[in-house]
Design brief:
Elements: H1 14-23, E1 50-55, H2 57-65, E2 78-86, E3 90-92, E4 95-97, E5 107-115, H3 118-127, H4 129-138
Antiparallel strand pairs: 1-5, 2-5, 3-4
Helix pairs in contact: 3-4
Length: about 140
């Protein structure tokens, strides 16, 4: 996995952020920069490489369609942590919290890359991805 030289965190104004975004090359594979979480890591993942998409199912599908390179992270060394579910109101400190701007039939999708354990990596090296796929189907 290729890592880039750390750079100082930057706070952008909207104008600066748009200018930076516009200057970015197209067709850059985000997987090259998506550092995996350690095997069996615990605690908050805030600030770790990951994606959250929320909105209508059609919007989420459109964004996912542009992120198909990330599927390559599902392999013998790493796996994708992938969650997609309906957005529902939640209880916060005993109070029901609804979301005023929530789209109709809203969903949320989270994507993170995780390291596989040593055993899974060894099995993949010996038997290939077919065995891992068969084991996942058995779960």
């Amino acid at each position: 996995m290729k890592t880039t030289t750390p750079r100082k965190a930057t706070t952008y104004t909207k104008e600066q952020a748009l200018k930076h975004w516009q200057s970015l090359p197209t067709n850059t594979d985000p997987l090259k920069h998506m550092e995996p979480l350690p095997y069996k890591s615990e605690g908050s993942t805030y600030g770790a490489c990951g994606i959250r998409i929320d909105g209508t199912p059609e919007f989420i599908d459109a964004v996912l369609g542009r992120l198909k390179d990330l599927i390559q992270a599902e392999n013998g060394t790493t796996r994708l942590g992938l969650s997609r579910r309906a957005v529902t109101s939640v209880d916060i400190k005993g109070e029901r919290k609804c979301f005023a701007n929530q789209a109709a039939q809203a969903e949320v999708c989270y994507i993170r890359r995780h390291m596989r354990g040593d055993e899974a990596q060894i099995l993949h090296a010996v038997y290939g991805s077919r065995l891992i796929e068969e084991l996942q189907e058995m779960e």
